[in-house]
Amino acid sequence: MNMSYETERLKLEILTPSSMRQVLEFQLRNKELFERYEPTRPENFYTLNHQQSLLKCELKLAMKLSTIRFYVFKKEAPSQIIGTVCLHDVLRMPYCCCEIGYKFDHAYHHQGYAREAVVKALDIAFLELGLHRVFARVVPENAPSVRLLESLGFVQEGLEHGCTQIQGVWTDHLRYGLLSPYEVRS
Fold it and tell me: What does the radius of gyration of the chain's CA atoms come to, in whole angstroms?
């Protein structure tokens, strides 16, 4: 697996701890948006030290191919993070699956960037990691994310009640799954 991939308009990169300022800026720009859909952050989350520690951890996990977070950049603006797409909790046989998650800067919504990055991440999951299945969780109120998943062929598999604690409240999530389009099935 590579540390960097490209699509038509984007560059997806696994970052090193030296990118902590870029990551912190991305998180701060989108704090209000991201906190609507993500678990409560520790008090020190929005600090350089914490972001550096997270990047160290993410790099180690990527080397083990257990969690791979790609930071997304526009090719024409390679120093500003516009989103992330993550393949996490990668399981090998007999499951051969992982969960996918993504988030994009509010200024880059509705421009196809999330779709482009997620498609590339799915190709990596199925073709390079050899996974059989990718699943996603999304709060029912996140209509743009639901539309994205469904447009990519993900099938709604059910509702996970009280799945994740977000800002102190146990929140239901829709669960979506996608089987590898590259496998032959009988």
Answer: 16
